[in-house]
């Protein structure tokens, strides 16, 4: 990386204004450490452009100076993908906060990349619509961030991931050129799917500045059940039974006895059910009384596979809090920053994977506590490892990700690769696949100026 001179910082200030170039160590602290507390870097400056033209000018200046850039949204990522570990400039989208339009007829939302998920949801709800994506970090996570990481969350089972909600995009290439693919069309089959390519590119291909998102019609009523299940297989059978009964699943989340106990201790909550169970399934289905009756009937048919259940009409915050508090509880209760490994396997492999993982960990890392939870309907398990000694992070990550590969899974289901998993991308991709990804990156960012240390490095 080139030497950062005062004149370079002055050039950035001439583009965005001196107040929007942050260099004071205390002020930049929140931009150089990630949410988990594991990744802490340093930066010559955090730059906060106000619009696309300023983003373009900032990137062109960095390109000329040979200074790499790490784009950053709400800094809620869990794989170190938006932290400047090598002194890169941080380009914050915090000021790209305009909600330009909600079109209730075409059901789209056009907004700046820095708009939070919660604000976008609120804007859509004012028109009786909703964003198809929802996740626990909704108050801080931004639209640009969820697009750049192709975030998942709790509604994937119903609406698909963020990529499938993205209709159009405006993004700035590393040299400052602005790429716009912005069509409010369901069908537009001309050439490569560039918005789809930028979704999940983790800031390596371009900096997302504006997004055009699909909106969904939310269910007017839902029913939520928290179910104590005998096994993962029983929980999966229940999910299958609900779908076969004609119910629409809005969410299907898995928790374990250990995870619920951790959350209860952390939040001082009562037990969710009056019976204990090794696994807990939280399902939300759309519909009113009829849906509730169908839900009860599927639960009854499950026999002893279901140990007990609590059913409430949505939004049922009381039941959801056991699931939504997992991330916070894991971070607070671990003696070291937790190792967070977001993986997926085919549904049939979830139970064998979890059993084998438990045995692997007990043999190699007996002092580590594993809390596994996640989006069961998507085959997505969040493996959270608590109390991992600093020197053991890499070895335990290697153990888990190799176990995932043996069960035909993916080493990243929804959080992305970032820095945390860059060394393991070969576990899920062939050499030709990696070559094609490197070629795409080289075509869009030939000098590797954007987030150079995430994904497969060139
Ligand atoms: C979740 O589903 O709660 C998130 O992906 C966050 C996490 O894994 O901690
Ligand atoms: Zn998740």
What does this protein look like?
- This protein has four domains: 3-92, Uridine Diphospho-n-acetylenolpyruvylglucosamine Reductase, domain 2; 99-216, Uridine Diphospho-n-acetylenolpyruvylglucosamine Reductase, domain 3, CATH 3.30.465; 222-324, Alpha-Beta Plaits; 334-427, Alpha-Beta Plaits (2-Layer Sandwich).
- The model has no long low-confidence stretch (mean pLDDT 96).
- It has a seven-stranded antiparallel sheet, sandwiched between helices. Strands 5, 6, 7, 8, 9 and 10 form a six-stranded antiparallel sheet that branches.
- By secondary structure, the chain is α+β, with helices and mostly antiparallel strands.
- The protein is 33% helix and 21% strand.
- It binds D-malate (MLT) and zinc ion.
- Zinc ion binds next to strand 16.
- D-malate binds at residues 136, 326-327, 340, 342, 382.
In short:
This protein is α+β, with helices and mostly antiparallel strands. It contains 15 helices and 17 strands. The protein folds into 4 domains: 90 residues, 2-Layer Sandwich (Uridine Diphospho-n-acetylenolpyruvylglucosamine Reductase, domain 2), CATH 3.30.43; 118 residues, 2-Layer Sandwich (Uridine Diphospho-n-acetylenolpyruvylglucosamine Reductase, domain 3); 103 residues, Alpha-Beta Plaits (2-Layer Sandwich), CATH 3.30.70; 94 residues, Alpha-Beta Plaits (2-Layer Sandwich), CATH 3.30.70.
């Amino acid at each position: 990386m080139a030497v950062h001179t005062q004149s370079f910082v002055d050039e950035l200030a001439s583009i965005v204004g001196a107040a929007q170039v942050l260099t004071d160590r205390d002020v930049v602290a929140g931009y150089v450490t990630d949410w988990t507390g594991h990744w802490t870097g340093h930066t010559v400056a955090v730059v906060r452009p106000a619009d696309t033209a300023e983003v373009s000018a900032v990137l062109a200046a960095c390109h000329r100076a040979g200074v790499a850039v790490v784009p950053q949204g709400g800094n809620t990522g869990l794989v170190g993908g938006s932290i400047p570990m090598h002194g890169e400039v941080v380009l914050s989208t915090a000021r790209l906060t305009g909600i330009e339009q909600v079109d209730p007829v075409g059901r789209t939302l056009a907004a700046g990349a820095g708009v939070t998920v919660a604000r976008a949801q609120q804007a859509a709800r004012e028109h009786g619509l909703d964003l198809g994506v929802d996740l626990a970090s909704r108050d801080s996570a931004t639209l640009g961030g969820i697009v750049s990481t192709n975030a998942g969350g709790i509604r994937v089972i119903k609406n698909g991931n963020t990529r499938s909600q993205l209709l159009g995009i405006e993004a700035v290439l590393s040299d400052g050129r602005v790429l716009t693919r912005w069509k409010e069309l369901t069908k537009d089959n001309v050439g490569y799917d560039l918005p789809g390519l930028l979704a999940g590119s983790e800031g390596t291909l371009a900096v997302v500045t504006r997004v055009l998102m699909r909106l969904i019609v939310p269910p007017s009523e839902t029913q939520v059940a928290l179910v104590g299940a005998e096994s993962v297989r029983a929980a999966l059978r229940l999910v299958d039974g609900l779908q076969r009964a004609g119910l629409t699943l809005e969410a299907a989340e898995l928790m374990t006895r250990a995870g619920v106990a951790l959350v209860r201790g952390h939040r001082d909550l009562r037990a969710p059910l009056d019976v204990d169970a090794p696994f807990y399934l939280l399902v939300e289905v759309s519909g009113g009384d009829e849906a509730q009756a169908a839900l009860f009937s599927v639960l009854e048919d499950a026999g002893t596979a279901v140990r007990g259940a609590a059913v409430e009409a949505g939004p049922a915050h009381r039941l959801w809090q056991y699931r939504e508090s997992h991330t916070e509880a894991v971070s607070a209760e671990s003696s070291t920053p937790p190792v967070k490994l977001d993986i997926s396997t085919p549904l049939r492999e979830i139970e064998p994977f979890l059993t084998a993982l438990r045995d692997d960990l007990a043999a190699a890392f007996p002092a580590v506590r594993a809390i596994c939870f996640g989006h069961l309907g998507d085959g997505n398990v969040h493996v959270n490892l608590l109390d991992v000694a600093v020197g053991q992070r890499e070895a335990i990550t290697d153990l888990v990700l190799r176990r995932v590969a043996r069960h035909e899974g993916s080493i990243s289901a929804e959080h992305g690769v970032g820095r945390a998993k860059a060394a393991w991308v070969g576990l899920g991709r062939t050499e030709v696949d990696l070559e094609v990804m490197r070629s795409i990156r080289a075509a869009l960012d030939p000098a590797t100026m954007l987030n150079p240390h995430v994904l497969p490095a060139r």
